[in-house]
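Changelog note: in this version the structure field was regenerated for every chain. One regenerated record is shown below for reference.
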Amino acid sequence: MKNEEYSLTRQQKLQIAQEILQDNDLRKELEKDLLHYADLLKDIEKRREQYISEAKDEMYQLFRQYMFDYLGDGQYIQPYERAIVNIHFSLEEIENKNKKQEPNQWERKYHHATQQVQIGDVIRHFLGVDNLRRNISCPFHEDKNPSFHVYENQNRFHCFSCAANGSPINFVRQFKNCDFKEAVELLNFF
């Protein structure tokens, strides 16, 4: 009997050690990604400043800023900033994983799911759609004419046929058929 208890305890210790190693590997990868995105963001901001400063008057500077932000590399600033925030959040989650459940941990996850997660990222992940500027087929019903629209600036979606609508949490709840807490947990990986 003692051998079984010892082997079970040994297996549990091995499993815990394996999880710690996996967390360390994941942490290293996330830190590497974080540095990569930070370098990309610095490079873009440096080029942006240089591009804008080449203009002589204020109006032309505003025009060049617009051109850079919407037609040039400036369009990558917001996705890179989101990636940095999400990686930072994931690193904090790894740090808190083995700690005792803190009372504010749920609040942090909820805040991340409601404030940081973007509907466009969620739709692209689950539906594999690249162009969200026009209507797409609704995943919640058989849709012959695309009637599902994503409002990225409002962080919402709406289907004009079945009236499905809401935030990223609502989308995950309907798409994965899960409850609110599971949806928030799923969105913490975005």
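Spot check on this record: The two ends are 46 Å apart (CA to CA). The helical segments are 2-53, 58-71, 77-97, 105-116, 119-127, 168-176, 180-187.
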